[in-house]
Design a protein that fits this description.
mainly alpha; about 425 residues
């Protein structure tokens, strides 16, 4: 049989799909103030609304990421995009019917549709597995950095465009436009997305060994072992899977949380206009995403742990400064440093996934991507609660969460480095 596509097409499909998958969640942060006014929400409830897409976008990464190891990534990826289309379509219809006067009492329904909308983010762990199986080990860093970096550009670009769109076309029109965008992206992924050779051969009925032999001839180096359950259990037995989860909770979970939270921070604490707040949020999100591509190259060269160590130090410094920064220029500089630290650290963490867990990449990507991204759900309500307790200054004090997380992660990386020196971690964990 003839293999459909190649590694370039495989990477293009997953990157485009992940980019479009962010369409729904990117709306919630910049438009949160509209829901707050229409439903009279407290800061804590507002934080929960901003974060709810990250709940499904994180937890669903676990089973769907593991699913890749049995059938390849196309089917689970496409299903997640469809669920996101349903969620964003539901919110759009609700706004058309009820906004603004009829929104009171509909908070639970908005949360439900927000939960479905976040399914598009869960495509990340699927894309990690799908991309990993297409590329050899020595190109994992750049391939995964490109997938995650370019895909993650979506929230920043949307944060830049959305405030302008809202100004000229209105709140409800924005949701309808983003719904059409997501629907278009889902169709495109269905046409472009393609599984790695092994999964194509298996789908055609070839025995496992024969499929592996032919796939090796096509350049595929990584292969799954076992069912979805096996993939999750096997990866869960690797202790460093949980180390990567802890690191990713801060970096990618923090990235999602802050992309949703920064519009509120800039408006409520710095008194910026929505357009200016959207611009600065876009700076953070685009930088954190685009630098991830370079971060993948750096991790390929110097190793994931070492790169994560320096990146986490930058996160600690930036978050500490934002606790007390009131000067606008200084705050913007710290946010830029925070974005760079998170973006490079994200690339470093996922460089290590196929190294540590080569036989269950999908399962490991599910755990790391899922529980790590859970930070995007857990952190905004905490920051909102701090703001609710301390008032305006609380929007700055909320960064204490990242100070504590970064300090904890530095300790984790330090112990990993000590294990490495003692020979308890394979050399391949540092560099290929």
């Amino acid at each position: 049989m003839t293999i459909k596509g190649n590694s370039r097409r495989g990477l293009t499909g997953t990157t485009l799909g992940f980019f479009f998958g962010f369409a729904a969640v990117a709306l919630y942060g910049p438009t949160a103030v509209r829901f707050k006014e229409a439903m009279d929400l407290t800061p804590a409830l507002l934080g929960l609304l901003i974060a709810i897409p990250a709940l499904s976008g994180s937890l669903l990464r676990i089973p769907f990421g593991a699913w890749v190891d049995t059938t390849g990534g196309k089917r689970p990826f496409f299903i997640l995009l469809l669920l996101s289309v349903i969620g964003l379509g539901g919110v759009t219809l609700l706004l058309l019917i009820s906004y603004p006067d009829g929104m009171r009492g509909l908070y639970g329904l908005v949360l439900f549709f927000g939960f479905l909308s976040g399914c598009g983010i869960a495509t990340f762990s699927v894309g990690i597995g799908q991309t990993s199986y297409w590329f050899p080990r020595n190109r994992q860093g750049i391939a995964l950095g490109t997938f995650a970096g370019l895909g993650n550009l979506a929230p920043g670009i949307f944060s830049l465009i959305l405030p302008v769109f809202l100004t000229y076309y209105g709140f409800i029109s924005a949701y309808f436009a983003w719904f059409l965008f997501l629907l278009t992206g889902t169709i495109l992924y269905g046409l472009i997305g393609v599984n790695a050779p092994y999964f194509q051969y298996r789908k055609e009925g070839l025995p496992d060994e024969q499929a592996r032999t032919r796939s090796l001839e096509k350049g595929q180096e990584l292969f799954p072992s076992g069912s979805v359950k096996d993939s999750l259990l096997n990866s869960a037995k690797v202790s460093n899977t949980w180390t990567l989860v802890a690191l990713y909770f801060t970096t990618f979970g923090g990235f999602i949380a802050l992309t949703a939270w920064f519009p509120t921070y800039w408006i409520e604490f710095q008194q910026f206009t929505p357009v200016k707040a959207g611009l600065l949020t876009a700076v953070f999100s685009i930088l954190a995403s685009s630098i991830r591509v370079a971060g993948g190259r750096i991790a390929d060269r110097f190793g994931g742990e070492k790169v994560a160590l320096f990146s986490m130090t930058a996160i600690l410094f930036a978050a500490s400064g934002l606790l007390y920064a009131s000067d606008i220029a200084f705050s913007i500089g710290l946010v830029i440093l925070l974005a760079a630290g998170m973006g490079i650290a994200n690339a470093a963490v996922f460089k290590l996934v196929p190294v540590y867990v080569p036989k269950s990449v999908g399962g490991a990507a599910g755990w790391v991507g899922g529980l790590g991204a859970f930070g995007g759900f857990a952190l905004p309500p905490i920051m909102g609660a701090i703001a609710g307790r301390y008032g305006e200054i609380g929007y700055a004090r909320g960064f204490l969460v990242f100070v504590l997380l970064a300090a904890l992660n530095l300790l984790i990386i330090y112990f990993l480095l000590n294990k490495r020196k003692k020979g308890e971690i394979a050399a391949g964990a540092f560099a290929q």
